Amino acid sequence: MVAPNQMITEQTDSDPSPASKSSWRFGDLSAAELMPQLRRHLLNQDDAANWQLAWLNNDGRPVIGLLPKVSWSVYATDQKPFKNSVNTYRVVKNCRDNCSTHSKPTTTAYMSYLEWQNELIAYSKAYDTDNNRSNNINSKSTNSSYHHGLVGFVGYDIAAYELSPADRIELANQPCASLGHYDIYLTPVADTDTGWELKSIQTNSSSEEAAGNKAKDEFIVALTSYLDELDKKLSDKYLNQAQFEDASNITPLILTPRWSKSDYQQAFDRTQDYLQQGDCYQINLTQKWSGYLPYKSDATQPTSALIDYLPSLHHNTQAPFASYLSVDGASVEHVDTFNHSFELLSCSPELFFTFTKDKATNKHHILTKPIKGTMPRGSTDKQDESYKQQLIDSEKDRAENVMIVDLLRNDLGKYAKIGSVKVPQLFAIESFSNVHHMVSTITAELKTDTHPLAVLFGSLPAGSITGTPKKRSVEIIAELESTPRGAYCGTMGYMNFDGSGQWNVLIRTLQANGSAHNDFNKERQINLWAGGGITVASDCDAEYQECLDKVGNLLAVLANKV
User: Fold this and answer.
1) Element (H, E) at 160
2) What backbone torsions phi and psi does residue 491 show, to the nearest 5 degrees?
3) d(C-alpha 405, C-alpha 403), whole Å
4) Residue 185 DSSP SS3
C-alpha cells in the first residue's frame, strides 16, 4: 500500500510518459458502442490479464476502467458462523503489479463484512491526496467525475444478509460484491465532442512499490499499442463493415418469467397479509425473468457475452446511471463451486448517492434521489401527458414516496451533522424511455469523523427497493421471492479517494453467470428482475402491469424485436 505522504500525479501529453499516444477517436463510437469492441480486442491481445472492464455512464460523464491495480471480489462461504458470531466471506484480492515485492498476485482471506469495509477505508485513506497542494490531480477534477479511487458494486444479497443475519438470507452463487482500484482508465477528451484519453495515475514510489511501478510502465506501453490498433481498426467503418456486422449480430435472447400471473397474485396476497398484520408499511416485491446465453462453438464467431447487448440496451433506455462490470472468477479458490465469469449490466435510472467534497472546508455532502411511483409512457403525446398527470395526482404514490423519504432521512441521520438533513424537492416527475417516475431529493452534510464508504455500506440496501421498516422488509422479501436477488437492487458506482463519488441503485439490471448444471453445454444464465413497492392500497393487477412496464422494453431489445 502506498504511504499516506506519497503524492499522486497524472500522466498527460506533456508529462514524461512511457505511452506514445494518450487519446483516440475509436471511430467516434459512444461509450456503450465501444465497450464490446474494447472487451473483445483486449482479450484477443492478452487473455491472461485480469481486465475486469468497468463502465459508468455517470449521468453523462462516462468513465471506462480497464485493469485495476487491486481488486476485491467477495464470495459466500460454506462456513457457518457460531451463535452470536459475525458472518465471514471469502475475499479474493487480485494485484496487478503484485502490490509489493512481498505479496502474491492473488490472495484469499476470510473476513467479516465490517472487516472488508474497514480494509477499503484504510486503503482509501492511504491514497487520499487532500493534503498535497502541489501537482494534485484533484485540482483539475470535479466532484461529479471519477478521477482516482474505487469502482465496482455491492450486491443486494450481502447487504440484506448483514441487515438480518439471523434470518440466513440466501446468497446467490456469484460475486456478492466487487470493487477495484482503477488507476488506469479512459475518459472523454476534455472540452471536445469526440475522443477518449487514457489516464494513468502514478505514485511517487517507495522502494516497496518500485518494482510494481516499473511493471505498470511496461503495461502502459503495451496497452497503448493495443488501443492504437483498435483505433486503427475502428477508424473506417466502411472498410471494417464485416467486423461491425459481426458485433451487431447478437443472438436473440428470450427471457421467461419465473412466476405466472397466478404466482404473482399468490405472492401479492401474502404480502398484503403481512401489511395488514402491521409487519411493514411497504414491501418491495420483485419477480425474475431468466434465459440462457449459448456458447458459440463456431471458432469464427466471437463468444456471446452480456456486454454485446449493451449498445442496443443503452440506445433504447439512455439511462443516466447505466453501468457495466465484468469479473473473472478463474482465480477463485474452489472455483468449481462458483462461476468462472460474471457480468453485470445495468440500465438504471435511479441515483442512490452522490458524495461531494468542499475543498475549502474539507466537508463532505451527500445527495440521494429515491424513486417511488411509476406510470408507463403513452403511445401519443396526449396519452403520455395524461399518464404523467395521473402520477402527479396519485395520493397512493405520494404516500409511498414519503415513506421512503422518511426511511432515507433516518438512514442518513446516523451519519449526518445534526440539523443538516434536508428535503429540497418532493414528488418531482422524471420521464424515461418507457416510464414516468416520481422522484424526491434529500441532502445532508456528513459528520467530520464519518467516511463516505461507511455511509454507503451502512445505508445498503436502498430503502426504495426494500420497503419500510427495512429489516423486516428484507426478511419478508427473502421468504416471498424465495430466490436470491444477487447484485440486483444493490449499488454500483465509484468512490474517489478524496471521498467524492456517485452510486446508482441497481434496478433495470441484468446479470450473467455460469450455472453448475449448464457447464457441460457452456451456457450462461441471464437474469433480469422487476418489481414495485406494495402497500395496503395497492392493486394486484396494477402492480403486475407496473413490473411489465419497467422491463418490457429491455425484454424486447434482448429478443431483437426493436
Assistant:
1) helix 156-163
2) -145, 150
3) 6
4) strand
How many C-beta atoms lie closer than 10 Å to residue 548's C-beta? 13
Q: What CA–CA distance (Å, rounded) separates 334 from 76? A: 12
Question: If we measure between CA atoms, which residue out of 295, 226, 304 comes closest to residue 67?
Answer: 226
298 CB neighbour count, 10 Å cutoff: 7
C-alpha cell at 205: 514510489
Our CA angle for 224, 227, 229, nearest 5°, is 110
Q: What angle do CA 511, 551, 513 make, to 5 degrees?
A: 10
d(CA 6, CA 15): 18
Query: Which residues make Cβ contacts (< 8 Å) with residue 193, sequence separation at least 6?
Result: none
How high is the pLDDT of residue 460? 96
Helix (H) or strand (E) holding 328: strand 323-328
Catalytic residue flag (residue 550):
no
pTM of the model: 0.90
CA 492, CA 503: separation in Å to the nearest integer? 5
Which residues are CB-contacts of 120 (< 8 A; sequence separation ≥ 6)? 72, 150, 179, 453
Check: CB of residue 73 under 8 Å from CB of residue 175: yes
Annotation says 372 is catalytic: yes
Assign 50 to helix, strand or coil: coil
pLDDT in tens, 185-233: 999 998 777 799 999 987 655 545 555 567 778 889 999 999 999 999 9
CA dihedral 122, 113, 530, 57 (to 10 degrees): 10
Could you give the residue ranges of the DSSP H alpha helices within 380-435?
381-393, 395-413
**What pLDDT digit, counting tens, does each position of 447-456 carry?**
999 999 999 9
Q: How far is Cα 422 from Cα 335, in angstroms, rounded to an integer? A: 47
Give the number of residues written for the chain. 562
pLDDT of residue 51: 87
d(CA 290, CA 485): 12
Closest Cα partner for 542 from 165, 285, 310? 285
**Cβ contacts of 130 within 8 Å, gap of 6 or more:** 138, 359, 362, 498
Looking at the DSSP bridge assignments, the partners of residue 442 are: 368
Please give the pLDDT value at position 135.
Answer: 37
**φ, ψ for residue 421 (rounded to 5)?**
-75, 120
| Residue 451: closest CA among 522, 418, 484, 500 | 500
Cell of 486: 444477487
Q: Which DSSP category does 561 fall into? A: -
CA torsion angle for 535, 538, 543, 546 (degrees, to 10)?
A: -90
Check if the beta carbon of residue 72 is closer than 8 Å to that of residue 176. Answer: no
Indicate which residue of 69, 369, 372, 550 is catalytic.
372
Of the residues 350, 445, 475, 481, which is catalytic? 350
**Residues near 166 by Cβ (< 8 Å), separated by ≥ 6?**
none
